[in-house]
Design goal:
The chain is α/β, with parallel strands linked by helices. About 25% of the residues lie in helices and about 25% in strands. β39 and β40 form a beta hairpin.
């Protein structure tokens, strides 16, 4: 909509200059005069204002208002019964407000049209009541715009509006639809505790700062489309289905109330409306801080009933899950990413320690960083990839979930992946659960922690095939070495002869001494003995007896290998299966 077409067909013309501005002032004529309200003589302006009554129709399109002139106009429309100014239909299309525009508590009985208006000072519409349509299409607010506790009984249109400073809609009530299509907020947009009764579409809008919807209530099924640096939805209540499409922003859903299925989705392309692409210069244009990614980064679902929550293509690197319930029913779809474990090798005391690659919850990062004594990150500092990531508070165990709580989070999310038929995705969460149980001195007994330590050492909790097969190869090598050294006898067994003589069966046996080890150590290390020992070890892997004559020590070595090596083989096969199962 072009606001210029809605201006008065007969502008005031004050200050017109044929060599420059040939039109001059574009304000509409005051009835009975040929100039606008701003350029009336003092006597004519006084007569006009004196003749106004509460609820009068006001037409001041294109008129420039000083703060004093606006106050005089609203004073003339003062309603003694309510103590507030009351306007009927109000046309301020293209008007210019210099200084503070104070519409606090004003009642608009008819349509209020501020399309294309320019507010050069603070615009205050707190507690204003719009009974008709409130239209601020393509209006420009150069400074703070306040709509605190404003009531919109009809449609509220902010299509294409530009807010150069903060815009505050705290506790505003939207009884009908609210249009924020293409609205630009250069600072922040606050809708704390706003009530959206008739809103089914919110946006698409662009905000260089944060969009705050904390405590807001959405009654109808709604779609929110927001490109911003942050979207804060703490204790936001959705009484029906909700689809939140986000670009660039970090999303905080702490203690949000979801009464129906709700989805947070990364919108991969710029938003469009009626075939027109919504510009994102406030976020990506010259002079703006570089955006690391256009993916939505969910930072908290604490206190949320996750049974109704779907996260699609979101970054959960810093997401806090502690305190959420029905977490095993959350749905994670698309390209969902978690924080990785630290990379490289680290020194723990006098021994090097390396961490296996896996997806890690933010709570485990915070706990490990706290127990390792890592300092908290300073403002704006990026976490180092070779260290654990400290938490946002990092002040003590009261704010850092312990291993027992983190293990429960891993267990619930693992079930969510398994229910979604994503076994490889669930494997990392099973690994994390076992890690936390292994480090939990209160909820896990000492014997169980030792058993988990061996389970981790031999096969990475049955999830690291390379570790299980490495241990299997090491066990087979030791079996071969011990058999060559102590298990294979050096003397050959005595022969036994059987046959028939004169119709009678005979048997000639010579006594066989116990297998013995003779000779020096180097005499036992031969290729022939190595071949025999390898045959015994390979048969042990598949749980078979080689039939090889062994010493007493060798018999026990074979028994141990027949127990240990098939177990390691099974753990390696289990680890491969966990990565390829669907």
């Amino acid at each position: 909509m072009s606001t210029s077409l809605l201006l008065s067909p007969q502008p005031c013309g004050h200050g017109a200059d044929p060599a420059g501005d040939s039109v001059g002032c574009r304000g509409s004529h005051v009835p009975g005069h040929t100039v606008c309200l701003a350029h009336l003589t003092d006597t004519a302006r006084t007569d006009y204002l004196t003749g106004l009554a509460p609820g009068a129709v006001i037409d001041h399109r294109g008129t420039p208002f000083t703060q004093d002139l606006l106050e005089d106009l609203l004073h003339a429309l003062h309603d003694p019964s309510t103590g507030k100014a009351r306007l009927g239909r109000a046309l301020f299309i293209g008007a210019q407000f210099f200084g503070e525009a104070n519409f606090i508590g004003v009642q608009f009985s008819g349509n209020a049209q501020f399309d294309g208006a320019q507010f050069f000072g603070d615009a205050r519409f707190s507690r204003a009541q719009f009974s008709g349509e409130a239209s601020f299409v393509e209006a420009q607010f150069s400074r703070r715009a306040s709509f605190v506790e404003a009531q919109f009984s009809n449609d509220a249109r902010f299509t294409g509006t530009r807010f150069s400073a903060s815009a505050v809609f705290v506790e505003a009530q939207f009884s009908r639809d609210a249009w924020f299509v293409g609205t630009n907020f250069s600072w922040e947009a606050r809708f704390d505790r706003a009530h959206f009764e008739g809103v089914s579409d919110f946006g698409p809008l662009v905000c260089a700062g944060q969009v705050v919807l904390s405590g807001a209530v959405f009654v109808l099924p709604v779609t929110l489309e927001i490109a911003a640096t942050a979207v804060v939805c703490e204790r936001t209540r959705w009484e029906s289905t909700a689809t939140v499409r986000v670009r660039y922003a970090t999303v905080d859903l702490s203690h949000a109330v979801l009464t129906a299925p709700s989805a947070v989705i990364t919108h991969t392309t710029p938003f469009t409306s009626v075939g027109r692409t919504i510009g994102e210069d406030l976020l990506t244009g010259p002079g703006t801080p570089p955006c690391n990614s256009d993916r939505a980064r969910v930072v908290s679902v604490q206190g949320v009933d996750a049974a109704h929550l779907v996260l699609i293509d979101t970054d959960l690197t810093d997401c806090l899950f502690s305190g959420a319930f029905h977490l095993d029913q959350i749905r994670l779809e698309g390209r969902t990413t978690f924080a990785p474990a630290p990379t490289g090798w680290h020194r723990r005391g006098m021994r090097p320690v390396g961490f296996t690659r896996r997806r890690v919850l933010a709570e485990e990062h915070h706990w490990r960083a706290y127990t390792a004594g890592q300092p908290a990150l300073s403002a704006g500092e990026d976490p180092r990839p070779h260290l654990w990531r400290p938490g946002p508070h990092h002040t003590g165990p009261a704010r850092t979930p312990g291993p027992e709580e983190v293990a429960a989070l891993y267990r619930q999310l693992r079930k969510a992946f398994e229910d979604g038929k994503n076994e490889p995705g669930a494997a990392d969460f099973y690994y994390g659960e076992c890690e936390m149980r292994r480090h939990d001195p209160t909820g896990t007994t000492k014997g169980e922690r030792r058993l988990l330590w061996w389970y981790w050492l031999l096969s990475g909790y049955g999830l690291r095939a390379w570790r299980a097969f490495s241990c299997l190869l090491a066990a087979m090598s030791l079996t071969v070495l011990f058999l060559m050294s102590f298990g294979l006898p050096t003397n050959a067994p005595d022969s036994a002869t059987t046959g028939t003589l004169n119709g009678s069966k005979i048997s000639l046996n010579t006594s066989t001494p116990a297998p013995a080890l003779d000779g020096e150590w180097l005499q036992r290390m031969t290729w022939a003995r190595a071949e025999k020992a390898t045959r015994v070890a390979v048969n042990s892997v598949v749980f078979r007896s080689s039939g090889q004559n062994l010493t007493t020590v060798g018999t026990y070595i074979e028994m141990i290998s027949r127990l240990l090596e098939p177990t390691l083989l099974a753990l390696g096969v289990l680890a491969i299966r966990s990565r390829i199962k669907r």
